[in-house]
Structure to design on (162 residues):
């Protein structure tokens, strides 16, 4: 019987909530199930680890502390950047998440403050420092195709086959 393990493609229905408020931050409810290749860094580590060994039709509930999810908040990741370093036509608003190109590739940050000369940005992931709770139902499991293993991710629409 198929179970979730490294190098399989699994599709799941899931709901993620913040442990402290029970607010839903993401769910596949009403959408296609999520498909991903296990063991290749496509999902946060704790999410995959909690599903290892699950069979089709099984539902697992688990809580991930920040170290198993998006990491602890790093105060050093809060930086003040001269306003002139942003394109003048880029509308900046406090609380807004902005994607930008850096010397190290794409980055995302949250604008936390703006004054005449500087913009304060927070490079922490929006869910850093948060404990996350998941309810995950395994919908399907199949062996990964060789090209999926070579590319390190699942292929195909919704990543499931009939």
């Amino acid at each position: 019987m198929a179970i979730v393990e490294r190098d399989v493609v699994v599709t799941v229905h899931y709901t993620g909530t913040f442990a402290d408020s029970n607010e839903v931050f993401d769910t596949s409810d009403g959408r296609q199930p999520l498909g991903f290749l296990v063991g290749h860094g496509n999902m946060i580590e704790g999410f995959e680890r909690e599903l290892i060994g699950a069979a089709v039709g099984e539902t697992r509930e688990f809580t991930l502390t920040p170290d198993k999810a998006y990491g602890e908040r790093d105060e050093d990741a809060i930086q003040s950047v001269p306003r002139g370093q942003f394109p003048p036509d880029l509308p900046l608003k406090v609380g807004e998440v902005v994607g930008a190109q850096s010397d190290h590739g794409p980055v995302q940050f949250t604008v936390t403050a703006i004054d005449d000369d500087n913009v304060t940005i927070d490079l922490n992931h929006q869910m850093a420092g948060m404990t996350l709770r998941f309810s995950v139902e395994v919908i399907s499991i199949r062996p990964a195709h060789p090209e999926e293993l070579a590319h390190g991710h699942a292929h195909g629409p919704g990543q499931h086959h009939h």
Remarks:
- Residues 8-70+128-156 form a domain with the Chitinase A; domain 3 fold (CATH 3.10.50.40).
